[in-house]
Prior knowledge:
8-stranded antiparallel beta sheet
Amino acid sequence: MRLIGSFEDPGYVALSEAALAFFDRRTDLQRRGVAFSHGDGDTPGKVSTDISLVWIDRSDPEAQGLADVIMRGVSAGLKRYLAERPLFLSCCPERSLFVNPIFNLQRYAPGEGFHSWHCDWNTSDEATEPIRRVLAWILYLNTVPDAGTEFHWQDHHEEAVQGKLAIFPAGLSHVHRGRVSQTHTKTIATGWINAGSLDAYVARLAAG
């Protein structure tokens, strides 16, 4: 069974519509996107406009409300992913996985995208604990023709279809990049699934 899982559901479509409306409305939260992959020469690896969401941050009720729905939706998708691949969890460190509560909404205008091949696992020392990432996820918030996610080793293109949740390994086995549209804007929600438990992760964040 392939390790690139995709799940479509009317609930994910409704979530996508809500996230799009939130992105359009909350220009105060929009920032230039960042990535650890820097591209080649003068070409940045990623060009986007992002909103960061932190599920454990209650200071902005609207943002936290959306983050909560996304957390529940991706967690449900993770449960389905693991049910289809029972061996996967038994081979994971700690035999436990959780949706990291820090994730992003990302908008790519025509010609923008995550141009460079990359994976979601790295050894940087930052709050999302990249070294503990086991899986990554993408929720496509709108349908864009021929502008989904390309997986290099798998020779696979995951189409960008509104309400589709894709879950896939974060490591080097699944190097990927965004397929760039020159005519359409693409918006996604994306984040990671880490080894361990959510409670233990939140405790480490609180301890500083």
